[in-house]
Amino acid sequence: MQERPGRITDRRALSFPVPDDRYRIHWCPATPGFGVRVTINGARAWVAERRIDGKTVRRTLGRVSGRGAISADAARKLMVDVSSELQRGVDRFEQQREEKEERKRADAEVLLTFERGLEEYVAKKRRAKDGLGLKARTKADYLAMVREGGVTESGRQLADGELFALAKKPMTRISAEDMRAVYRTASARGRRRGIYAMQVTRAVFNWHGIKVPGNPLGKDVAGKDRIVLGKTSGNPKPIPPERLAAWWSAATALEGREAADYFRVLLLSGARPGELAGVAMRNFDAAGSRLILRDTKNRLDHIVLLPRQAAQIVERYAKGKRAGQRIFKVVDGRKALTAINLAAGTSVKPHGLRATFASVAEELVSAYTLKRLLNHLDSDDVTGGHYILKSESQLRAAWQAVADFITGAKPTKGT
User: Fold this and answer.
1) Could you tell me if 203 and 127 are in contact, meaning their C-beta atoms sit under 8 angstroms apart?
2) Are 68 and 61 in contact (CB under 8 A)?
3) DSSP code of 186?
4) How far apart are CA 395 and CA 400, in angstroms?
5) Could you tell me which residues are beta bridge partners of residue 293?
6) What is the sign of the dihedral through the CA atoms of 138, 139, 140 and 145?
7) How do residues 233-268 score in pLDDT, each as one tens digit?
8) In sequence order, what DSSP letters do the residues of 275-324 get, joined into one string?
């Protein structure tokens, strides 16, 4: 790939043919270590080569033609300067490359806003134990935190996401006080929302490896300056036992209203609201009265063996639907649940129905059966995970017992 023709001039440098291989260097016999590199694509550049500390060092001096080109004489003079600098341990081209890379890194840091950093996090984050990414619902929750509020079609004003104030700021320029301000604003909507917002913030910064001076979420910060998150405790608020009959009666009175029927199945199955709402027809086995909840909170599929009362409701909504369609299409469940609560004198929320199911089941079935019904997975529970097995008939009987209790509950005197 190297050859030594006669003295190289500007004109001669342009006359060298394009090689068949990657490139060819044409060395100048009149100026040792000086030549022209011609690539297979026709690009031409002046090059210099010399030995430094026993190693051959080659540098590109400039282009032969086109924008920014330099002449053969200018290239020779530059070669002398470069050779002298290399001998003294100075490499201007390496310095220029390092400066260019540093500018790229700096530009990337400026361009990496918190919003972009969060988007990359939810797209690429993987769990260490199994390599699984975040669930679609979790991704949506996180991304909603950096969205600007708007107005719904009904005219209801939506608040900005908890982390919207950080969204457009470069992550490297977010300060400890910015984080405290966001925490105060989010906490004003409820302590749990403040903690959740900070947990997401901490996760995004840790994932990108970006340090915030005086980070209030860091353990190396003085206690008086720290935001102590701790663990959030659940607050499900099940239906009071004395109001259970009234709630079921009120929900049944709205039979045929899809949201009300969905809430009744939610109560009878013990499923999580989002998991039941996402069930498609292909995951319903009408003959076996089974619902398969895919990729649940613990990332496992969960089979719900529907009791008779719930199966009848599901079958009615499944009729005529295609495999990919959802069984329930609840547009505005809030109105239906508000109406039920108003009639029953309760204030239960969707997740509170799962808590109600668990509260009823706790008195009717064993603790390990209850875990199976709720799809609670405890990796440290060797006994429950490896020794105590529950058959389908046992689980089906348990679901039916809970449903019979709920639907047959009697009003408490004085209520």
Assistant:
1) no
2) no
3) H
4) 9
5) 302
6) positive
7) 556 789 999 999 999 999 999 988 999 999 999 999
8) HHHT-BGGGEETTTTEEEE-S-TTSS-EEEE--HHHHHHHHHHHTT--TT
* Dist. CA 297–CA 168, nearest whole Å: 31
Q: Greatest CA span in the chain, whole angstroms? A: 113
Measured CA to CA, the distance from residue 232 to residue 292 in angstroms comes to: 29
Question: CA dist 361 to 271, 398, 408, Å?
Answer: 13, 8, 14
Q: Please, what is the end-to-end C-alpha distance for the chain in angstroms?
A: 97
pLDDT tens per residue, range 40-96: 989 999 999 888 777 888 888 999 998 889 999 999 999 888 888 877 766 666 666
| Residue environment code for 306-319, b if the CB has 16+ CB neighbours within 10 A, otherwise e | bbebbbebbeebbe
Which residues does 150 contact at the CB level (< 8 Å), separation at least 6? 158
The band of 99, judged by pLDDT with boundaries at 50, 70 and 90, is low
Across the range 17-28, mean pLDDT stands at: 91
β-strand pairing of 284-285 with 290-293: antiparallel
- The predicted model scores a pTM of 0.60
Distances, alpha carbon 401 to alpha carbons 280, 307, 394, in Å:
26, 8, 11
- C-beta separation of 201 from 229 below 8 A: no
C-beta of residue 232 within 8 angstroms of C-beta of residue 196: yes
